[in-house]
Structures are given as structure tokens and as C-alpha cells.
Amino acid sequence: MKNITKLSFVTALSMASFTTCLSANETLADAFTNGKIKGEIKSVYSSSNFLGNSKTDNISTIGGSLGFITADFYGFSAGATFQASHVIDDRNKNNVFSSDLNASGGVLSEAYLDYKLSNTSVKAGRQYIYTPLVSTAIDGKSSESLLKDSFEAYLLTNSDIPNTTIVAGYVDKYQAKTDGNTDIGKFNDFEDGAYTLYVKNNSVENLELQAQYLDVNATNSNNDRNNIYLQADYKIGTHTISAQYLSSKDESKGSTLEDGELYGIKAQGALGIGKLGYLVAFNSSTKDGDVNLGAGAGTTDTAFTAMPVNGGGVPTRANTDTLVGGLIVPVYDITTIAYAGYSWSNGGLGDVSAVGAMAIYPFYENFLLKVNYEHVETEHTIIPAGIEEKNTDVARVYLSYKF
Asked: How far apart are CA 316 and CA 260, in angstroms?
């Protein structure tokens, strides 16, 4: 039934496109002539001795993306983005970067048809998605890499209700950054499909509300997953106060560990001293199971206390409290962010502390240089054996040119 529904949807969309082309075929060339090309050339270097490896992994990569989107043609547009990556150097090979940077090859990550009518749009095909529970890797966050992950999906977006955006979607396939075996990720079935509903509302002045539900149908019906996400952001002058809630059920973990729950609060804004800024965040997970964050690399950044380099794996552990603070220091054209965090837990990695710094420098038109460093220490580690009291140092350098 699911396949019939998908086929009917795609067939209807294709017939609508064909009918439109027949009625205005003479201007179809204009849609391509007036289209836009966008792309990025990018190089990433990273080193890591993850959890105290005796030798540090070092990897250097280069690649980028090239995309094209047509102009509007009676409400229709089409887009495509090709990504490529090449590993220049890979030393020590402890597989630290196997799911992140260690990939050579190319993939067509976006190939979609988009139709817009009034306040409604339908987008079908390979595409990047950015929502709290379904998200492609996000630039400037821990999920950023040389490559982006992508989805084959069908999204309907509507904004008929004032100050409200509603997104309903079905995810069919997923392309990871890498295949875990030195090749770029390819599109594979995303379990047995996933459904999501996302709502964002700005009806109240200075208040933004977000809510999302995700239901993942696992290939094994006994391993289904579902997630609920809520977030509120309230602006007070130059400050923003935020709250978040996430609950997850992952049946593959067993009845005692399948439920996860996370609460969070965050404050950020200007300190009132020059251009200095601040960020303070706290997360608490209250169930016996780890919190499942959803689908896609970008969801690793969803928790307020997710670290800029190592992501949100630490604060989303079961029965864990995490506190993070950061100071934002703009000096001339360079923005520097210094931060520290501490996470308390009674199991697994135990207590985790982290300090780090990030520098962002747009040194020339369309050129950007980013340097990240993060030091992590563990205490009171219980499992797994062999990593007790080990430290992790990660350095990353990004150089990109966008056009």
C-alpha cells in the first residue's frame, strides 16, 4: 500500500509537470537560462586521538559541491547538487574519521522537483532537510564536514495560517556522508520509511515556537522508533531565552532502555561590553535510555549543550546532566568563541569535561577560514573496558570558497 501511494504521488506530480510544459513549452528554456549555479570548494584537515588512542589520526581532504536550480516555470522548479571528496592524506587509520571525512568519490545528493502554488509547496526527490528531528549536516556546527548527508523525501510545506509554517513529509532513503569504508555515502533505504510533521509559529511577538514528530518504521517492526521535539525561544532586548524538550522511544533497545527524555534551557545574547556575547545552556536527561535524536547528521547538534566539535552524544546519555558556557569575542574580522562544559552521569563514560575554542575568519570575499580545537576528559568511567580516564584532543581546520 505504501509503494502504491508513493507511486501515485510521483505519477500525479509528473503528469502535472508534463501538462504544464505542453501549455507553455516555449518558455521552458527561460527557466534554465535564468537558473542559478552555486557551489563550494572546500578543504578540511582534522586530527584526533579519540578516547586516548595511542596514536593520533590525521586526515586531509579536499572536495566540494556544485549545484543548479532552475528559475520558476509556472510554479515548477528543479534543482540538483553534486558532491565530491578526495582524501589527500590519512595517517594512523584508527577509523576515527570513517563516518565523517574518510571518503573519496562523488554522489548526486540533490535531484528534486519543487512545485509552489500560493502558500503551499511540494518538493519531491533527493534534498537537504533542516528541521530539529530530520536534518542534514549544518555548517558551523559539530555535524559539519566536507560532505553533507541527504535524504530522498517528499515534503509538503504550507503557510496559509498566519505566522505559521507547517511541514509534512515522508523520508524514503538516506545518504550518509560516507559508507564507513573509504567511499562516499550512497542512497539506501531509510529503514522501512519515516513520517514527520513539523510546525513553527511566530504569532506572539518575540516568541517562536517549534514542534515536531517523527515516526520511523524499522525494517524489523519490533525496532520502530518515534520522537517528539518542542522548543520555545523568547527574545528580550538583545537576549534570547530558550527551552527545549525531547522524548524518544527506540524499541530496539529493549523495554528497560527504550525510553529517552531530555529537557533543556539556554540563554544567549550580548554582554553589554563592546561586542562581547555569551551563551549558557543546561540539559538534563531523565530516563534510563539514551535519547534518540532523530534522522540525519544535523540532529547531533539539536541538544542545547551539544559541543561544537564532538556534538551531542554526551548530554543525550541516559540520566545525565550537562552544563555548558561560552564567551563570544569579535576582534576586527575574526570571531572567537571560547567555551567549557561539564557532564555528570553514573554510567558509561561517567563524568565528561570539555574546553575548546573556535575562530571564524572571512578573510576575503567568499573565502572563509575556521579553526576548531576541543579537549575532552573523562572521569569515573565504567564501560567499555580499556578507555578508563582517557582524554580526547580534536583539531579541525576548514577552508572554503563559495560561489
From this structure: 8
- Mean residue pLDDT of the chain comes to 90
Q: What is the pLDDT of residue 53?
A: 67
Q: Using an 8 Å Cβ cutoff, are 128 and 148 in contact?
A: yes
The per-residue pLDDT for 221 is: 80
Task: Count CB-CB contacts under 10 A for residue 28.
Answer: 15
Q: What is the DSSP letter of 377?
A: E
Q: Are 17 and 76 in contact (CB under 8 A)?
A: yes
Distance CA 62, CA 326 (A): 30
For the segment 35-45, the average pLDDT, to the nearest whole number, is 97
Which segment of 118-122, 200-204, 207-211, 310-314 scores lowest on mean pLDDT? Answer: 310-314
Quick: pLDDT tens for 96-117: 899 999 999 999 999 999 999 9
Based on DSSP, count helices (H) and strands (E) in the chain, helices before strands: 2, 19
* H-helix segments, 227-338: none
Three-point CA angle 213, 306, 94, nearest 5°: 110
Query: What average pLDDT does the segment 244-263 reach?
Result: 95
Task: State how far the Cα of 264 lies from the Cα of 91, in Å rounded to an integer.
Answer: 39
**Number of Cβ atoms within 10 Å of the Cβ of 296:** 26
DSSP symbol at 181: S
Region 17-46: mean pLDDT is 76
Rounded-to-integer distance, Cα 332 and Cα 291, Å:
40
What would the grid cell of residue 333 be? 574580522
Nearest to 310 by CA among 401, 391, 208, 213: 391
With cut-offs at 50, 70 and 90, classify the pLDDT of residue 6: very low
C-alpha cell read off for 45: 584537515
Length of the chain: 403
The model's pTM: 0.89
For position 20, what pLDDT does the model report? 41
Radius of gyration of the chain (CA): 22
